[in-house]
Amino acid sequence: MENFAFYNPVKILFGKGQIANIGAEIPSDAKILITYGGGSIKSNGVYEQVKAALAGRNFLEFGGIEANPHLETLLKAVDLIRAEGIDFLLAVGGGSVVDGTKFIAAAVPFDGDPWDICAKQAPVKAAIPFGAVLTLPATGSEMNTASVVTKWETQEKLFFASPLVFPKFSVLDPETTYSLPIRQVSNGIVDAYVHVMEQYLTYPANAPLQDRMAESILKTLIEEGPKVLADLHNYEARANVMWCATMALNGLIGVGVPQDWATHMIGHELTALHGIDHAQTLAIVLPNTLTVRRDRKRLKLLQYADRVWGLVDGTEDSRIDQAIAKTREFFESVGVPTHLSDYGVGLDVIPKIIDRFEKRGFVALGENQDVTPKVVEKILVLCA
Ligand SMILES: NC(=O)c1ccc[n+]([C@@H]2O[C@H](COP(=O)([O-])OP(=O)(O)OC[C@H]3O[C@@H](n4cnc5c(N)ncnc54)[C@H](O)[C@@H]3O)[C@@H](O)[C@H]2O)c1
């Protein structure tokens, strides 16, 4: 196992009715800005619960944060916060609202062009404190330091991470997810699954505990995901998927082990260029990342085949083939298509992505830093 430091201070309030308890988590004299997205919180009762929990408190609202939050919108919130002297943010929504709020929190005290936080990885030295009420289990953003922001003007989707943007608390009430469109439920299952794979499906690092935690999350998603889709008001299944998504990317399973993330980096370009949902891009790319990099990932692919899919018969190569096929089938079975053609995108996207990577000076991705632009090309050709 590699050395590591693990720190995660996010307080989780899990379960039905927990929104009522947020008042106690926010300083009583805070001037609060509630941030949210397209307005689903106003039709599913979440907004009313938040307002009731903050009764008598000093708060303003900022709505309209898009899926794949746009820099241009977030900067409007930054102006509002500076003008109004806001000192606490409350993100109410999915990963995009939470990510966007993290960016806003870091941008308000930032000296210079806030886009540099993502584009130049400029250090974040301060951030406004914030909490989250999560309405879409998928990203893990509610319990991690990462944020992904899209600059609409240039169609760039870039990330930053800082311990200063850990939420102070996050509410995970599975009932808030009942109103999700099925596509987003499916996306959430796949997103959480691929987050685990990015941290697990690399090479052995003598970290059996992390491996077994990762395998447990994968198996739980395989069992519970379809239950949610079969009965959209199955509270227990919703709760299990929600907790899986948080545990998939709160840092715990990734400590002391190599991590990949090539699938995510390629996927971000597909979203930026073609607007394909984040999880859909992962479903397209991951099976092919595993295929192209099967030699470097061989030992973990065999472990994954055995422990997650129960594949123990046949040659090593056939078990690996089957494990990759099972992964693809699982994504398809929960309703997320796995080919670029399913989204009307052709292979002409490949040179654009390679060109972007090269212009950004990226040399190689992946746990061995050997996913060069040439390897990315091989992966994308298989995505057709
Ligand atoms: N910070 C991280 O660690 C991390 C990890 C993975 C992905 N991301 C990023 O997160 C973003 C995706 O977030 P997401 O998958 O949570 O989706 P999202 O937040 O973009 O939401 C998707 C859609 O669902 C709607 N929605 C959300 N909750 C709802 C509810 N309860 N009822 C009805 N509609 C609802 C939203 O309004 C939106 O239209 C992407 O930009 C992705 O790159 C971040």
Automatic annotation (TrEMBL):
It comes from the Bacteria. Keywords: Oxidoreductase. Residues 9-174 form the Alcohol dehydrogenase iron-type/glycerol dehydrogenase GldA domain. It holds the Pfam family ADH_Fe_C. Transmembrane segments: none annotated. Residues 188-356 form the Fe-containing alcohol dehydrogenase-like C-terminal domain. CDD domains: BDH. The keyword Oxidoreductase applies. InterPro entries: ADH_Fe/GldA, ADH_Fe_C, ADH_Fe_CS, BDH-like. Coiled coil: none annotated. This is Iron-containing alcohol dehydrogenase.
